[in-house]
Design a protein that fits this description.
40% helix; single chain; 6 strands; alpha/beta
Length: 188
């Protein structure tokens, strides 16, 4: 964490400067890999402390204490710092972070963790190439990867309409995801 906190590898490209925002520990049984912090998260320094985080916690069934307990949940974005604006929203995560840091972080996490791949960037990086060309295809095939990996859309405001067009997400994926998370946190 100390090395990551001091990272400046992509500083010239960051409009607000470097401020890596993530959490993890060697006991994190759940790993959530998202995109990159937005401006609210950049300002607070707390991962997923925005409307998207509220939606994600609702999807997972995790309360605030569980979600922000690094002993239980690792929150590791594809890009650790706010990447700036682009047409239609935030810019994509900087491409330097995942190759530079992810393998080193994953080495410290339990091998039998549950991983959520939140959004296209994480899915394209971690899922096999034959997992589907579109986000809908990848998320729809969740049972191919469960219970170890769950691809989900990004829980931005756009996901509200996406969920209406894809009611199977609430009916089929979310119950399985929530049960898998409970099993990770409270194994019997």
């Amino acid at each position: 964490m100390d090395e990551i906190s001091g990272c400046t590898i992509c500083a010239p490209y960051l409009p607000l400067g470097p401020r890596p925002v993530l959490q993890f520990s060697s006991t994190s049984r759940i790993l959530i890999i998202g995109q990159a912090p937005g401006t609210k998260v950049h300002n607070s320094g707390i991962p997923w402390q925005d409307d998207s985080g509220d939606r994600l916690r609702e999807w997972t069934g995790l309360d605030l204490d569980e979600f922000y307990d690094p002993a239980k949940v690792a929150l590791v974005p594809m890009g650790f710092c706010y990447p700036g604006k682009a047409a239609g929203g935030d810019a994509p995560p900087r491409p330097e972070c995942a190759p530079q840091w992810h393998a080193r972080i994953l080495e410290h996490l339990p091998a039998d963790r549950l991983t959520l791949l939140v959004g296209s960037y994480a899915q394209q990086y971690y899922l096999p190439k034959d997992a589907g060309k579109t986000l809908v295809e990848r998320v729809r095939s969740f049972d191919r990867f469960a219970p170890a990996i769950f691809p989900t859309p990004h829980p931005s405001w756009r996901s509200v309409a996406w969920r209406k067009r894809n009611p199977w997400f609430d009916a089929e994926l979310l119950p399985v995801l929530r049960a898998a998370i409970r099993n990770q946190l409270d194994p019997t």
